[in-house]
Design brief:
transcription regulation; 6-stranded parallel beta sheet; Rossmann fold; 3-stranded parallel beta sheet; single chain; about 350 residues; transcription; 434 Repressor (Amino-terminal Domain); globular; LacI/GalR-like_sensor; about 15% strand; repressor
């Protein structure tokens, strides 16, 4: 296969090789729009996928974790969308990463700053074994890591432009099983609540939901349905929009019998709105979540959900990072960790069945 060069990228975009070099260097000097165009074109042309073509520090890929006790792994978890170590979801993943690194005698440096210039100062090639990214991470940050040739694994996130190993819960299959369970109880009017553009996990959960309904001959919401594109699903700002939609459905007598929420945090707030407008859960409406955070069990009523083995995902990311360091030539992998259905009081057969 012929090598893709910066000049080819420049010709493809109609810009100078100097602009391409600046955009890919991570050192600035090019506006955001142009940089994003260059990164996307480079990815489409296969520039990043070339063995050793882009990575500047190949010593990373040749290191062995045998002497790892003297080195550290950077855990990058930008403090956005409530991705903090105190989170009931992200914090558990971080605990798994920490436990596995500690068991292997490897140090850990947590970085929450999402600015590329600040992050670059942390990247000391002599002391870094690799990087584990947790949650949503900007492409520019991942590009900087890739530019330096640092082995990395992403947990619950992937970037369409930067090729890297990833670890996810088996989102699609899990929601598919959950929906089949609800359909087996007699539900025929199911609705998905979330934002399918919020993250890859949400998108995969929506795909599993849609597949289950289609296989059972049930009507699926249109892709422009407002409940699929709710704003503020991470902050709770979506509540007013959801309440307005719910009341309109109630007035039109087009209420679903089951609400399949993209995660537990959404499901908890959905339960609160239902209680506010006088709809009983589960007698009049079944509600389900995803993730099995502690608050889902404490909700009233406790929420039927999917248990995501969060610590196991963190541990698996460490194991994969070590494998990547020892075998840099292996094909990139997307690992799906099995998740389990947890039956609780928020789901029953629809009234009248």
């Amino acid at each position: 296969m012929k090598k893709v060069t910066m000049q080819q990228i420049a010709d493809h975009l109609g810009v100078s090789k100097f602009v391409v070099s600046k955009a890919l260097s991570g050192k600035g000097g090019v506006n955001e729009t142009t940089k994003n165009r260059v990164i996307q074109a480079a990815s489409q042309l296969g520039y990043f996928a070339q063995k050793n073509a882009y990575m500047k520090n190949q010593s990373f890929a040749q290191q062995s974790p045998v002497a790892a006790g003297k080195q550290s792994v950077i855990v990058l978890m930008p403090n956005i969308r409530f991705q903090t170590k105190d989170s009931l979801y992200w914090g558990k993943i971080l605990e798994g990463v920490s436990a596995e690194l500690e068991a292997r005698g490897i140090g850990m440096v947590i970085v929450s700053d999402s600015r590329v210039d600040h992050f670059s100062h942390v990247l000391n090639p002599g002391g870094i074994l690799g990087l584990i990214g947790v949650g949503q991470i900007d492409t520019s940050l991942l590009l900087e890591v890739h530019r330096l040739g640092i082995p990395m694994v992403l947990v619950d996130h992937e970037d369409g432009l930067i090729p890297t190993d990833t670890v996810f819960a088996n989102n699609g299959d899990s929601i598919f099983r959950l929906c089949n369970h609800l359909i087996g109880l007699g539900h025929t009017r199911l609705h998905f609540i979330g934002n399918i553009r919020f993250s890859r996990s949400f998108r995969d959960r929506w795909a599993g939901f849609r597949e289950a309904l289609e296989e059972n001959g049930l009507e699926t919401p249109a892709v422009d349905d407002p409940m699929l594109l709710l704003n503020g699903v991470d902050t709770g700002e979506f509540v007013s929009d959801f309440e307005e939609w719910l009341l309109a459905r109630k007035k039109a007598r087009r209420m679903p019998t089951a609400l399949v929420c993209a995660n537990d945090s959404i499901a908890i707030r959905v339960e609160q709105v239902l209680k506010k407008v006088g709809i009983e859960v589960p007698a009049q409406m079944t509600v389900t979540g995803f993730d099995n955070i502690d608050d889902a069990f404490r909700s009233d009523p406790p929420i039927t959900t999917i248990h995501v083995p969060k610590e196991a995902m963190g541990r698996r990311a460490v194991i994969k990072l070590i494998e990547r360091i020892e075998h840099p030539e292996q094909a990139i992998e997307k690992m799906l960790v099995a998740a389990e259905l947890v039956h609780r009081d928020s789901s029953v057969a629809p009234s009248g069945t």
